[in-house]
Design goal:
single chain, 219 residues, alpha+beta, Alpha-Beta Plaits
């Protein structure tokens, strides 16, 4: 049996965009565009079509495979000026074009369906790789994502700041982070323990492994 690579479409929707007046929205949209440029540069090797604003309050990008989709989502969370929800759709692309708006395929349909599920559930992100209900890998990924979201919703501003630092400097030890933030190593450890950071890290590693499994399918 042949191994066929799956593409991945990430569709994002800005929360509460209608609440902004025209002047404020122009400023926010400029910051969103800047964040997407950052994503395109930082993850260029994983991206098939650059992330871009496709509607007034919606953005979209296409990845070669789903393997890096969670890390890109987390990166977006760290740099976006406003809250958003994402649908990650995994599958084939039927029509390939230089313009995202002219492309189509099951990865696009699933990304849109996943985004609608995220809106209904209140989760920041949902993954959909199959049209079959009760798909084990999808259910497992989305359950872990839900648990991570539940933990993150309890984090203080300080916990968010230090976790963001950990994610931005994956090679740093607690001592390195403490030195950079001018606090004690014990203080960093206490904050991260209270945030259940190790649990979140383990969950994220499981998500990455499962997404890697979805990179190829038997055909």
């Amino acid at each position: 049996m042949n191994s066929v690579s799956n593409n991945c479409v990430i569709t994002g929707d800005i929360k509460g965009s209608r609440a902004f007046n025209a002047a404020d929205w122009r400023i926010i949209q400029g910051k969103i565009k800047k964040a997407l440029v950052d994503i395109n540069k930082s993850h260029s090797s994983a991206i098939l079509r650059d992330f871009t604003i496709t509607l007034d309050d919606e953005f979209q990008g296409i990845l070669n495979t789903p393997e890096d989709s969670y890390d890109i989502f987390v990166h977006l969370q760290n740099i976006m000026p406003v809250e958003f929800r994402c649908g990650i759709g995994i599958g084939k692309i039927e029509v390939l074009s230089y313009k995202i708006t002219e492309m189509r395929g099951e990865s696009f349909f699933r990304s849109r369906e996943a985004l609608e599920l995220a809106k209904k559930s209140g989760y920041p992100v949902i993954v959909k790789s199959s049209d079959v209900e009760d798909n084990l890998i999808d259910d497992t990924i989305n359950t872990i994502l839900g648990l991570i979201n539940t933990l993150q919703s309890t984090w203080s501003t300080r916990q968010k700041e230090i976790v963001k630092h950990c994610r931005s400097h994956k090679d740093y030890t607690y001592s390195d982070i403490a030195r950079e933030l001018n606090v004690s190593k014990q203080s960093i450890s206490q904050v991260l323990n209270a945030a259940h950071w190790k649990v979140v890290q383990n969950g994220e590693q499981s998500i990455r492994r499962l997404l890697k499994e979805l990179t190829t399918t038997s055909g």
